[in-house]
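Two folds, back to back.
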Amino acid sequence: MTTDARPDRRRLVLFLLLMVLVGLNLRPALSSLAPLLLRIRADTGLSPLAIGALTTLPVLCLGVFAPLAPWLAKRAGPENTLALALGLLILGLLLRGLPAVVLLFGGTLLVGAAIGVAGTLLPALVKRELPGGADLMTGVYTMALCLGGALGAGLSIPLADLMDSWRWSLVSWGLLAAVALLAWVSLMPRTPRNLPAPPLGGSMRELLGQPLAWQVMLLMGTQSSLAYIVFGWLPTLLQSRGYSEAEAGWLMGASVMVQLISALGAPWLARFGRDQRPALLLVLGCVAGGLWLLLQAGQNWRWPGVVLLGLGQGGSFSLALTLIVLRTANSRLAGKLSGLAQGGGYTLAAMGPLAVGVLLQFEVSIDAITLVLLLIVAVAITFALLAGRNRRLDLDQSGRLFTR
């Protein structure tokens, strides 16, 4: 019994480390772009609307390509599909460093596609490898995402200054992705754990007929919309309030760094009860408070705003991912709900950065933009009150999907 437990424990520790390393790569490609937007615009001559499209494109690709992840995993295996996604991420990062503007957009499209596939696979892999503690391990994975996002936001300007090129700053994140790819290919779990196979059934059509699946998806979409608005436009909005380019980037980076705390802590908080609504209301309230302080209050309130926004966004994203595993009975359903929630959710989320780009194109005031962001928070709270209830998608003995 002891000899069986040791390899199993080693497998779980190794999987956890690999999951963290992969997670570190799923945000820098997005967050490193925002602090550099003014340089990119000055160098390329792109309009605010085109810059808005550049920030929207990867998020839209997250949504479009996320549903492909279960299909690819079924044919090539989830481990090989994740390796393919990391290779695609490296290619996209390299293309963004080439001079042609069309390759900047093309590389960004590949980056979004790769992150969409990889991000969809990981919750299902977590549910497979650690079914009893999948919600807590999702918190660890989310913490890695937040750390990667913070590094991307905080280091993009220093890297651009060091290399005297915003293009090389973007390309440099390919090194971290290459390390993750080599580690995953060398050490990935090559055979499933010795667990009973999940029952067949639960097609995507059946899933679309379940209100709970839609509620989780719309919560994912609305809170992700706020996250990608922050990734795409917060430095620009802060610069319009008088902050320097470097300080605006560091403020966003600090906010993403604070997300580490709530990304890891929120699943623990959610475990105090079977109902996740109180935890969701708490973190979304922090998002609203942080946005208002940063965009409306005086500059002496910037650090409380950074902390509140970071705690709220780290917690809301972690809880949204946690709901995917808490609201499903097995890894098969978790993979399908992950594809739906992240596919549909990120497609919806892509409208957020684009909308802000349109508002800036028409020189809408910062007050009006703040109001739009707070309205999105209100919509997210509405879906949180529905998705946060103690309900679960399961299969009956005939393989038919139902909510219990």
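---
second:
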Amino acid sequence: MTYPRGKMEAMNLTRPETTHDVVIIGAGNAGIALAARLRRDDPDLDIAIVSPEGLHTYRPLLSYVGAGLATLRRAQRPQSKQIPAGCTWYRESVVELTPAPVSGEVDATSAHQVHTDAGRRISATDVVVCPGTHIDWDATPGLRQACASPHASTNYEPTMASATWDMLKNLRQGNAVFTISSHNAPCPSVGLKPLFLAADHWRREGRLENITMTVLNENSDFTGLPRANNEIDSRLRRLGVHVRSGITIESIDADSRHVITRDVDGNATHWPYDALHVVPAHRGHDWVADAGIARPETGLIDIDENTLHHRRNDGIWSLGDAAQLGTASSGGGLRRQVPVLSDNLIARRNGQPLAARYDGYSVAPIPIDRRHLILAEWDRQGHEEKTLSFISLARPRMATFAFDLFAQPLIYWHRLLKGK
């Protein structure tokens, strides 16, 4: 692996090696919630968190920022306030991970090495790799240029969420196109949020009949739950939205404002747009691939999807967007992943079997207007996994909309990030 000169010089600085029981790479929802849970489950664990971000973003709220229903300030808080008490925070970026040699047997004494851009080397017998993924701007030619214009945006980039609302609220007529990538995009179905929320705004403003809406979805459907998909399809039909699924988004021509797609037969279609919201392709970090812990075909970390432990490297774990989970990635899914990984990590350190299992639970909250929301919940087999056993939340409800917009952020900051 080749590093820029400045990074090599930083790595060559003389710094003592530090050692911890557990190193968590990443301080998003997954990393902070897991660190807090581990501290609750085993207060004697020496835990370090490695992440350079100074701000912590509650990402589900970005869709509401992009609809004028929330502010970016409400979605972000200082990262220093989220680090659990008793944990060491290295505000540095990982540049290399060197797993301990594969022995073929579980060995709780082998140390993995984490190298940072500050020249620090951190050793640990357990490393949890959860840095998330990042937008792959180069995967779609023209995407970066399009999003630099006032005619395209994405809620997946926090600094662009407000621009999404400026773009959509000011559209008077023309073509509004919404794309959804199939390449590692976290909770891709949230790409429908700006469509439904903007359509309700346009209806209230009397502009809806003058705007043609199109969804270009590289996936075959929108969620893993057929009941929710039927509700969504019905709503899209009532709004007159043109839906194309199972296609490939090849490129974007920012100058002529066209999205170019190709179908399974190889036929290309050019879709004109006056406003474009993109759920972009995502990719894992280069150092993850270099460490040999990812699946080559996806770039996601190759863990046992039930135990969340790596398939080959003892003491390597993962959860969240960076992990190959066998189900749709979602922040809500971490509610089930965090306790499973905590239980199994502690069991391994105590020489016990990995008994906890993650069933693939995932969730997609999709508002169909500015008052009602569908909460789709499913497991790895596509069966509905109800949070409330006595009622299905996959039907549009005012209560779920209010919960998602107002209550869930409070639960996130005050409960989930505390390991509760």
